[in-house]
Each structure stands twice: as C-alpha cells, then as structure tokens.
Fold this protein.
Amino acid sequence: MMKMKKFLTVFILMALCGSALADEKSNQDVKIGFLSYLGTTEAAFQDDFDNFRKTITEEYLKTHGDIRPFITSLSARRRRIHFYNSLMTMLMGLRSGKVDEVILPEFTGRYILQMNSNYEIKFVSRMLVSRLSFAFTEDRTHLKEEFDEVIAAMKDDGTLTSLEDEYVTSVLAGKSPKSVKPKVFKGAETITVAVTGDIPPIDMFAGDGNPAGYSTAVLAEIGERLGKNIRFLSIDSGARSQSLSSERADVVFWYRTTETPIDNNDETASAYEKLFRDKPEHVILSLPYFEWDHDYVIKAKETTGLFDMFRR
C-alpha cells in the first residue's frame, strides 16, 4: 500500500512538472520550416512574417472564416523562421525537433504523408493562389517568349491536363513515379534546366535517380515542340537563384508565384502577399503551367503514450 502511495505521489509530481513544461512550451515561439525563398533572406522573411502577424485583427478573422484556424494559430504564437535548402534536410529538422512544423504545397504534403507515416497534418491553409512558372534571367527574354507560346498551346490542346493526370493525380493515387527522358535532337540548341527534387510529385527524382515528375514531363514536351534539347542539372533548392545568375542553368525548374484570392486592398492580405512573393530582381517568369490554392502545415506525428509530455 505504501509503495502504491509513493508511486501515485511521484506520478502526480511528474504530471504537474509535465504540465508546467507544456505551459512553458505553449508560450514559446513556434519554429517553422520553409524551403528557401529566392527573393529574400531568412532574416527579411522573419521581419515580413512578424509584420503580417501585427496586421491580424478580429475583424479580419470574422470575414475570412475559411482560413481562421490557420491564421488564429499564427496570431496566437510567434513563428520563428528556418530556411532549408532541401526537402530532405527540412523533414530531418522536423523529425529531430529543430522545427515544430513545416509548410508545403498541398500536393507535396499529400505525397509526404503517403510515403512516410512519421508525419501528420496540423492545418490545411487556404490563403494564397499559388502558380508554378519557369524562371529566366532578363537577358533570356526570347527563350521565355518561346516557352510562353508552347505553354499556351499545351493548355489549349489539353496536354497540360493530360500530363497532370499522368504525373500528379496517378502518383498521389499510389502509382510509382517514372523518370522522364526528353527527346534528343542532334546538333540542336541545348537548354539547361535546374532540378531540385524538392516538391514531389511536381519536381522529383524517380527510383533510378533520374529527374521525374510533372514539371519534367512539361519541359520534355516543350523541348520536343521547340526542337531543342533539354538537359537537367541537379541542385539544392537554395541554389536556384545562383544557378541562374551564374549561368549554370538557363531555366530554374521550379518557381512559385503567388497572389491572394481576397481583396488586395486589405492590409492583412497585402502583408501576406508580400511575405510570399518569391521573386528575386532581374528574373522574369513564363506563363504559369500549374496552380493550387491549399498548403499543408505538417508536424511530426506524436505517440499517444501516458508520458508523451516528457518526450517533447
């Protein structure tokens, strides 16, 4: 009986300490991971994020109920920003506790959850309409115009939709991704495209180590229609801007442009749009070839054991 009382006393003390630790944790900054943005630095992004939080008002939350859980979460606790140069290192940071959550496009979030049971959704946010384009330096205007013409034609004739079904929808339904090998044109111009593999199944590598995914397939089709060779260059996400400026690549394989689906005169919407405007100077964009309007906020899955409070 005495042993049982001692056990209960120790357990209660541990629970109280755990509650205190949990309360302390709830008051701490939330560490959040992002794939590195091109047009800003981690410090500048942090400042813009803090500014966005300051613009959030109860009135804003009342008029934007569909995003209230996500925005309320942002306003309740400050987010401390961490940039990562690759998806793999970001997920390692999440799993090790260096960050508490990460934000990824919906399709990448779904792919990660499908492939790895260690993670789960914390929020699904709908704040921005995001579009994928190809990026060029300003002196490659002619190449951009060629891409624009082909992208417009592929949209009109249904090719983009067909490729999306084959390389996005089917993969998210469980089909194994396959590598893409562009057609070779002897003696033709070669366009070098930077590949990160960081937003599957859009930009990724197949099991054989070769570039795969929707964007790769789009580029292969563009190369074929232009009669030009496409050569892929593997880089980290954080090196995209440098690969353009150094002329290692003619095209950045992934580029994300964003706009708010709500009134741009709204102070909060404007602050949020500025925050996610990922475009460095002297860079021009092709027509968009893919878009989405949901992002996944993902966290590491926690166990449901009695002493979980001491695992954090």
Notes: The chain has a mean pLDDT of 81. The chain is about 40% helix and 20% strand. The chain has two domains: 29-128+298-310, 129-294.
